[in-house]
Specification:
The protein has 124 residues and is mostly helical. The protein has a two-stranded antiparallel ribbon with strand order 1-2. The radius of gyration is 18 Å and the shape is extended.
Length: 124
């Protein structure tokens, strides 16, 4: 006997959030960046490079420019990518970069609710 399919999210829970949703101002630029990476990965051009060569640019393009994470150079008081993530990505045999919410100041400001901790592992 088949089990009734249930939605992942309840419509009544999502409705207020979707009504208040506004597209980000950088949407056209984000589409260009994501299309560039999609083309590079789907055509095999990325296979010509080592993973460690691509990861710093991938982190900067996707996480900083598209998703809005910030580096210490972008905002020393409140950054969301630790300074060692990109250097670690360049030097590791197995790629792993922690994208979390460290703060260089004494008090941690309220986080933007759209930022989440990420861990990038393995091949791109």
């Amino acid at each position: 006997m088949p089990v009734e399919a249930k939605p992942l999210f309840r419509p009544d829970s999502l409705r207020p959030h979707l009504q208040a949703f506004a597209w980000p101002a950088n949407l056209p630029e984000s589409k260009v960046i994501l299309a560039k990476w999609a083309t590079m990965l789907s055509t095999g051009r990325a296979d010509k490079f080592k993973e460690q060569e691509l990861l710093p640019d991938f982190l900067t393009d996707v996480f900083c420019h598209v998703l809005g994470y910030t580096r210490p150079a972008d905002n020393p008081a409140r950054f969301t990518i630790p300074p060692d993530s990109q250097s670690r990505a360049r030097n590791m045999s197995r790629s792993m970069a922690n994208l979390r919410t460290p703060f260089s100041g004494t008090s941690a400001p309220a986080l933007n609710s759209s930022l989440s901790p990420w861990k990038v592992r393995g091949r791109l």
